[in-house]
Design brief:
heterodimer, A: alpha/beta, Rossmann fold, five-stranded parallel beta sheet, two-stranded antiparallel sheet, 10 helices, 42% helix, B: alpha/beta, 2 domains, seven-stranded mixed beta sheet, five-stranded mixed beta sheet, 14 strands, globular, binds thiamine diphosphate, binds magnesium ion
Amino acid sequence: MTPSKGHNKELAERAYRVRRNAVRMGEVQGQGYIAQALDIADVLATAYFHAMRYRPEDPNWEGRDRFLLSNGHYAIALYAALIEAGIIPEEELETYGSDESRLPMSGMASYTPGMEMSGGSLGVGMSIAVGMAMGLKRKKSDSRVYILFSDGELDEGSVWEAMMSAAHHKLDNIIAVVDVNNQQADGPSTQVMAFEPLGQKLEAFGWFVQRIDGNDLDAVVDAFDAAKDHKAPKPRIIVADTLMGKGVPFLEAREKNHFIRVDAHEWQLALAALDEGRLA
Amino acid sequence: MKPAAPPPTGKPRLTTSAMIASIAGEGQKTKPAPFGHALVEVAKTRPDVLGMTADLGKYTDLHIFGQAFPDRYYQMGMAEQLLFGAASGLAAEGFTPFATTYAVFATRRAYDFIHQTIAEEDRNVKIVCALPGLTSGYGPSHQAAEDLALMRAMPNMTVIDPCDAHEIEQVVPAIAAHRGPVYMRLLRGQVPVVLDEYGYTFELGRAKTLRGGDDVLIISSGIMTMRALDAAEELKADRIGAAVLHVPTIKPLDTETILREAGKTGRMVVVAENHTVVGGLGEAVAGLLLRSGVYPAFRQIGLPDEFLAAGALPTLHDRYGISTAAVVSRIKEWLSR
Ligand SMILES: Cc1ncc(C[n+]2csc(CCOP(=O)(O)OP(=O)(O)O)c2C)c(N)n1
Ligand SMILES: [Mg+2]
């Protein structure tokens, strides 16, 4: 897994556990958005165990930083982080995607503690982020709005409307992360709808932009720090290039797909691969 | 890099899953991707026919068309408003685009684009949408409980809710031949084949009686016709005669046939739809009957006016009353009162 320069050992362990939780949930259903959960685990570990302010025992604490999951199908990844953060009990992992579970396949605010928006219909999170950021400023709160969205969502015009407005309203309390895993439903994102040069586009839209290897934990930590410390009155975005299946070599090597099936016996192998990376 | 040994996990599998999203019953006869294959057939003699999608080609069976006619297939990215605006533009230039996405993203996200650029301009665009009504366990974001109500409310729009693969194969050439905007509910993947056994043929704008019966008339569309036929068979065992009138064209409604069938005395009329009870086939039929002075005992089977749960489809269909078992028990209950 992600090599650590030393001071991020604890975060690397967190990221390992987030991946592990996600794989265990994947096993419950035998299929799903596992490769995405593995690619974004380093970002989520950094958000929840380095950057953000929250109280696990009180997910609605007024002073918390908000976290918006715009790409609702990544719920498996966020549940994995929320479990590690102590907001969701670990036992519930066994219920993922099942009837009456608080952990539905597609993330919804009404179902899950710590889930701040109902996703599933892609491209809406950034508008909510704009409103929340305005609301926090009105309330003179120093809480921030973190938002994760996906490269496929870049296709939706609504995302760009919201990004233009975030810059217009100088919403420097937004820290966005876009997961560039180069995958969406019909194939590689860059082939479905060419969006590069993404960094330049976002800069032209008035954002403070950093582009990093989203699976290099040190780079992720530095990017979150820089986003928080930046002085210009601009919204901040981290463009995270990630590798689907990260941490499980046989999934990294598999033909990339938005929705993968994993054979029953492979889940144990996936967990074993994570363990191997943890020791390395 | 294939892993070697398969150690058995030995863990019990949960029986319920939001992944169970097939509408085909166990052992039911099915056909793969009937829409995609039918569109390829039509396109062979119709160079004006194009395929367009918003990052859901693989999930709406349009990839079959894309493979057959790569230069007539447009990937528009996950941008539904763009999809329908661009479809309108292509139609304005004389082409006949078949544009696909999920029902929720067409009817909700892109409603105004469809309304203004397709319906109001009366453009020859075919809107073909997977996951209609309650055919996804992902919760409200993917459950198009109100798609028919929304599309019915649009002037110029023809609205079709096919029952099975047999019907989809006939709907595709029919709507390609029809000039004007069409909204078609799509069943994708392995789609059940049912209506062939009833000698059924699809005609745009026509409702058809699939079986007779003296006690109750079930008026249905889409997958609920499949349920109604199964329910009628079960009711027969209890000596209840259930007729089934299939109404695949929701708009324009075949008022003549519906009034004739509902007007036969002595039968309770039950409208069954995979849709909220608000604004779909049930209320369309109710309004027609009232306006025409036909007053049979009238009941509605449909989804409740609430945000539906996430979960496994069979569980949800039972819970919300649109499974065969639920249809049977409610009809029995209504008739016994
Ligand atoms: C508005 C909207 N349109 C279409 C979909 C269907 N859909 C679900 S995920 C997806 C791909 C989105 O891209 P991305 O999140 O980058 O995919 P991933 O990286 O998870 O493969 C699509 C088209 C949706 N959920 N919402
Ligand atoms: Mg992606």
